[in-house]
Structures are given as structure tokens and as C-alpha cells.
Amino acid sequence: MDDERGAGRDAGTRLVANRDLLREFSDDVAALWLAPVPVLDDPPSALVFLRDYVSRSRPCIIKNAILVDAASTASREDPHPPRPLTLTLDELRALVPADDISISVDVTPDGCGDCIRLVHGGGRMCDPKAGSVPCFVRPLQRRMTLGEFCHLLRRGSSETVLSDSTPAADRVFETVQSAEGDGGDVDARSESLDSSAALLKGSVAYYSQQNDCLRKEMSALWDRGLFPAGFSWAEEAFQTSEATGPPRPDAVNLWIGDRRSVSSMHKDHYENLFYVLSGEKVFTLCPPCDAPFLYERPVPSAAFVMSGGAWKVRMDATGDGVPVAEDESGDAAPRVHWVAADVTDSRHIGKNGEGSEAFPLLQHAHTVTVRVREGEMLYVPALFFHRVSQSCETVAINYWYDMNFESPSWCYFRLVQQLQHEEA
Ligand SMILES: O=C(O)CCC(=O)C(=O)O
Known about the structure:
The protein is of the alpha+beta class. It has 9 helices and 25 strands. Strands 8, 9, 11, 17, 18, 19 and 20 form a 7-stranded mixed sheet that branches. It has a 6-stranded mixed sheet with strand order 2-3-22-15-24-13, with no helix packed on it. Strand 19 and strand 20 form a beta hairpin. The structure holds 2-oxoglutaric acid. Residues 208, 255, 263, 268, 272, 274, 386, 388, 398 line the site of 2-oxoglutaric acid.
């Protein structure tokens, strides 16, 4: 995901724009992006993909991108044309030794991983007296077998009553202080799966590692040879230099979740080819130019832990790998630059879509919702903002290719990203 974590460091020298200028900018962007996302019946040639989509930073849905050769089952009288590859979770389990493969699963109290939440004592160097502050909270990571994950996912899916139905953005979590009791055992990774009754009840499991997990952690599945190593029509279009030749994917990830999991709005520095194997993904997209309307902010970073059977949050410390940045008051802490406004939350959008007090510019964002069904691929251009959910149990894979930083678009994006609205 977004690793541009130090982007808030120059908060004191932000570019300021007035409302009229931003409205005009939004109108210009609308002329480029308000069209529906095109659906291509087959993968395009490299030239068409580059010309119509990559260079214009335009998403598209591509059908028939991964085909299964049905020749072995076809007969002369009944030829079966190749069909798009599909794979349900049960079919996936049958392909690998599910009870032996150990995977790292993201677990949250409500399905919202990698998002901004209210944390009590999360700011001002973790001072509990400072009240609740918005923090970027990563999910708790738990190792389990693929079989245990399926059990946890389906058990949670059938639970009709959520342990807490408060919207994620409104829930306040306590921080774990290093001096806090709990037998010193505040690290969820050290609690066994069975001993964490609270973790199992009402919590949401999502297999959503973004570290090349299909080729590494799930290599038993990758090695079955079902999935292509890459896509030549895309790789030629993503190619940035003749010397290095077509790029190979930086990462190939596997995603398994259900309707309870949401990846909040963010952008990646990757060209993204996202293929749904079964179920349905719902992408809410906003173009990179919407950066000033989405309230990307540097916020203190943290991760969920279980402490004494309750969900708590542990703030990142210097040295946890997250860059340290100062906020407006000069408070230095590890920070992540993340989108604060939720384009799907009516309270953020405000009455009649006119913007709320907290996010007045959100009304200028250019939101498009795309449903990606099994056997379809979505191209998400680098830097495109996306929020992702599932309408049902869904299995998907995606191929990430490094974006081209040697382009004017990257320079313009950096400029636009720093635009702030000046309240008149
Ligand atoms: O499927 C998801 O939950 C998130 C996908 C995503 O963010 C990505 O592919 O970059």
C-alpha cells in the first residue's frame, strides 16, 4: 500500500489554493474522468493499452485476461472455447494442503484494516490526557493455517450480530502503554488462537497481505501453474526503458475476504492488474487529481493488539520502520500519509452532497464505483485512489508493477497533493 509516509514533513510550506480555483480544477478533471469505466471484451494490444489507458491514467475492465484452456475436455462435436479462470475458496483449498500451509492473516474488530480511527491517547507522544486523535491503525497480524483461516472467515460470516455496530470511524480505542499490566503480554501474536475468545467472536479475518504472498507464502498454489507469470500486453505498455526490457510484476498478491472487510481509500505507487477469481469486488475510484479533495493527511501510525481479551492499539515507535514526521504543532512521531474523508460515508459527504463541515471539498471529488465480477480484471492506474470491498465471499489476485516515476504526471501529482484549501 501507500508507503509515502513522510509526505507531511513539509507541512509548513504547503501550497494554498482558494475555493474558486479548486472548483475550476475539479471541472477540468470532470471533463477527463466522469465517463463510465470502459469494459473491453478481450485484452488490448500493448499499443492500445498504452495509448488509451496507461498514458491517460484511465481504469478499464478487461474480460478474458486469464483463460483456461478447455481443449483437453473438448471434442470435435462439442468444442469448448477457452473460458476465464475462476476459483472459489473451496476449490482453492482442494488444490493445496490447507491444514499445513501457514499464512499471515489480517484481523480487525470490524473489517476495517489500514484506516484512520480514533485512538485515545494516540497523539502528543501517546499522552493519555491528550484525548482521542485520528490515527492510522493497521490490522493485527495472526499466523494460522489456511484451514483455520477458512474456519474463522466463515464462522464470522455467519454471525448475524456484530459485537459492536458503531461505525468504525466513531469507535474509540485505548492505547496500550508499555507500563500497562496484563502480565506484560500485550502482544496478540503471543496469544494462542484458541485462548483469544474475544478475537474470534465478532472479529473479521481478511487474507490481504501485500508482500507478494501468492508467490511466496502461498507458493503451493502459485506452483500449480494456474496463473500467468505476467501479461505481455501490459508489461510492454508499462515498460519504462528499453535497456531493462519488459518489467515483471513486483508482487503478486492473493486476497480472500467477505462482505465485512473494507480496504479504505488509498493510492499505491503501482500499476495494478486486479483479477477476481470468484465473488465480486466493489472498487470506489477517484482520480489522482482528487488528492486535494480527499483530505490526505499525515497521522500517527499504530497497529491493533489484543490485550487482556480486548482490542487495543499500540502506537508505532521510532524505529518501527515508519518515517518520523512533525505535525503542525511540532510533535514528532512515526506518521502515515492517509486519506481521512470517506466518499461512501453520507456524514462526510454532507446534505445534498454539498460537503460536510469536516470535509467541505469532498463534494468536488470524482467518484466512480466499479463492480468487478468473477473472471474479470480491473486495471487500476498508479496513483488512482481506491476503496475496496466485497459483496460476498471473494477470492482475487493482483499483479503490481512499479510505476513510472520518470513522467510529468508524477511531478504534477506531487504538486497537486500539496494543495491545501484556504478558508476565506
Ligand atoms: O482488495 C482489497 O481489499 C484492496 C486491494 C488494493 O488495495 C490493491 O490492489 O491495491
